[in-house]
Task: inverse folding
């Protein structure tokens, strides 16, 4: 341990001793403060500062890894709890309680959607008033509504002071009474639709970490699977009772229902018993008496049993889109059905082929109960993959979590650590990458997300859905070409225009965040310039790229040309900049400019004289006039983009925090 003579030792040795005994962060800071008080020479002091900074970084990374391992272990225990045969109401209470304890929230609750499109609070844990349970949420109000619309997590660091959320009187009153500030919500989805939402809330203002958001998504996915299992088992029991009580001679039907119910229980046991996709495929194929294949949605087979459906990779990708769009089993070819796989990971699918090779064209149609079972198989596969990712969580972050780290520029890892994590996910960290932001115009966002996940996976890239946009990180050095390729494949797939903006290339993974911000500004510019449905990069925008790029000193250019006039307007509330614009727009005619400004020509003349005093003689000569007009266009374009970003919910203004849409 460092003693009174520690400053005479090697800084590296001293901080290693502190790390070895897991000293509190304050001990490192105390040592550094002491070095500063003793006024060490610059070189030794810089060495102390660097050693301390690295030590704190190592300590924080180790703490984060241990915390993730602990949370993931608890998550697996939670999954075990959810497979106990609860009734749906009790199950929701278990999920709520587990979510609160698992992530240390002050309060957790679940809302369920009503047939009319509204929602109500079903269960709550950690509440201190009687106002929460049973609360009917006003339609189109609250943070949950944003999560339902986007199908993605939403969060805020301070709910009542976040004006980007559609507030409701009753909801705000409950939040105020409970003293809540930070709230995270994740939709619970079944069959492609949101059936409810899982909330976590704290009574302090804070931001949520990517790990916390990821765990909440897992919990919501597990909840959806467990609820579907409970629903199917209850329906099977009711059908068996109805057949028996009616005295119908339906022994075969009753036996089949019981067989499928037993098969569901067997699949759940496989998932929690450490089984693999091959074992699950074998069990499901046996229960259905058919050939079955589990695919990753890009045409690559993860597992199979029986006589596999004969579809090429392109048709499998199309089938994945159809199944995910339908949110359940769909017929994709004669005798072939597909069910979506997608809880917590990259979209995939389960393909079912009824009959053997001789029945390829006219295999029997699965019954309604068998189709429901096929849908459950897809959910079981998703749950199995999620559990395996959870138990292996310490080996590397999930793809979306890693992408979040790159986009928000909050990475504490070194370039070497980022590189290792990227390689684990199939990315080449040494290759140039382009950031693409695509915005579908209508209601087919879910279909676009499924396509984008497959596209990124095939292209050794990353993808996430955020704020209604689809964000892609793709290998490439030509941002324009990558944007056109994305648009060329995605636009024909959707019955709606897709606006695609790109920026880059990023010269390293650590520089992805600023490139992402440029892509967002490029998207804003396309929409501001009536370019919806088009595809472009910053380089395609000509002079506007100067405005949008972080590499250019736009403010400096504008100030060098118009600075005195801008300062005069700001200090004296005059309208000289507006007069310069009107003057150039009128072909340098003071009379016509006066008409556009609705003032007397003499007023324009006096203003022009004042402008000449500020800018100096010759500002109307061709070369200086061109500079002035360019500066005016940059100034106005910047103002338009800023106003547009302020007006659009969910647009990030910086890369320095969680999702600003709902998050600040």
Result:
């Amino acid at each position: 341990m460092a003693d009174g003579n520690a400053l005479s030792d090697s800084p590296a040795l001293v901080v290693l001793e502190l790390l070895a005994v897991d000293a509190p962060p304050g001990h490192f800071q105390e040592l550094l403060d002491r070095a500063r008080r003793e006024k060490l020479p610059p070189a030794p002091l810089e060495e102390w500062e660097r050693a301390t900074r690295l030590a704190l970084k190592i300590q924080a990374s180790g703490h984060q890894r241990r915390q993730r391992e602990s949370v993931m272990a608890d998550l697996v225990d939670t999954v075990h709890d959810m497979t106990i045969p609860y009734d749906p109401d009790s199950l929701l209470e278990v999920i709520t309680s587990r979510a609160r304890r698992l992530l240390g929230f002050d309060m957790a609750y679940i809302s369920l959607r009503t047939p009319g499109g509204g929602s109500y609070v079903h269960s709550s844990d950690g509440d201190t008033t009687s106002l929460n349970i049973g609360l009917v949420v006003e339609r189109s109000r609250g943070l949950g509504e944003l999560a339902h619309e986007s199908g993605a997590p939403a969060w805020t660091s301070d709910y009542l002071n976040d004006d980007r959320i559609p507030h409701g009187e009753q909801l705000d009153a409950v939040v105020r009474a409970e003293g809540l500030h930070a709230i995270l919500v994740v939709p619970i989805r079944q069959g492609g639709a949101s059936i409810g939402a899982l909330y976590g809330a704290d009574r302090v203002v804070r931001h949520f970490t990517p790990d916390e958001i990821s765990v909440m998504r897992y919990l919501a996915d597990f909840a959806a699977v467990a609820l579907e299992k409970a629903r199917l088992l209850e329906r099977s029991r009711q059908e068996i009772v109805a057949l028996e009580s009616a005295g119908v001679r339906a022994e075969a039907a009753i036996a089949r229902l019981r067989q499928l119910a037993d098969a569901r229980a067997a699949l759940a046991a496989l998932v929690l018993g450490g089984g693999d996709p091959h074992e699950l495929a074998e069990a499901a194929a046996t229960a259905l008496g058919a050939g079955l294949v589990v695919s990753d949605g890009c045409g690559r087979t993860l597992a199979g049993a029986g006589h596999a459906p004969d579809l090429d990779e392109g048709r499998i990708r199309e089938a994945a889109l159809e199944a995910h769009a339908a949110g359940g089993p769909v017929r994709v070819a004669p005798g072939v059905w597909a069910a979506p796989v997608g809880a917590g990971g990259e979209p995939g699918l389960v393909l079912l082929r009824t009959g053997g090779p001789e029945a390829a064209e006219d295999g029997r149609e699965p019954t309604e109960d068998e189709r429901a079972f096929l849908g459950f198989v897809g959910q079981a596969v998703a749950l199995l993959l999620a559990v395996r990712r959870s138990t292996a969580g310490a080996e590397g972050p999930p793809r979306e979590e890693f992408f979040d780290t790159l986009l928000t520029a909050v990475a504490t890892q070194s370039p070497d650590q980022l590189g290792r994590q990227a390689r684990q996910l199939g990315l080449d960290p040494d290759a140039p990458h382009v950031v693409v932001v695509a915005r579908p115009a209508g209601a087919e966002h879910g279909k676009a997300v499924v396509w984008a996940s497959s596209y990124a996976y095939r292209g050794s890239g990353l993808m996430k859905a955020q704020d209604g946009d689809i964000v892609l990180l793709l290998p490439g050095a030509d941002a324009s070409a990558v944007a056109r390729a994305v648009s060329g494949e995605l636009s024909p797939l959707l019955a709606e225009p897709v606006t695609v903006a790109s920026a880059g290339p990023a010269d390293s993974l650590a520089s992805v965040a600023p490139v992402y911000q440029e892509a967002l500004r490029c998207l804003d510019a396309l929409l501001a310039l009536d370019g919806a449905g088009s595809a472009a990069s910053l380089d395609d925008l000509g002079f506007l790229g100067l405005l949008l790029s972080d590499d250019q000193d736009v403010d400096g250019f504008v100030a060098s040309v118009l600075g005195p006039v801008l300062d005069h307007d700001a200090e004296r509330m005059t309208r000289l900049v507006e007069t310069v614009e009107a003057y150039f727009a009128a072909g340098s005619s003071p009379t016509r400019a006066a008409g556009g400004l609705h003032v007397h020509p003499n007023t324009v003349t006096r203003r022009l004289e004042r402008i000449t005093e500020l800018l100096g003689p010759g500002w109307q000569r061709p070369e200086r006039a061109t500079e002035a007009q360019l500066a005016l266009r940059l100034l106005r374009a910047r103002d338009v983009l800023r106003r547009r970003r302020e007006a659009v919910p969910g647009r990030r203004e910086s890369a320095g925090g969680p999702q600003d849409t709902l998050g600040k």
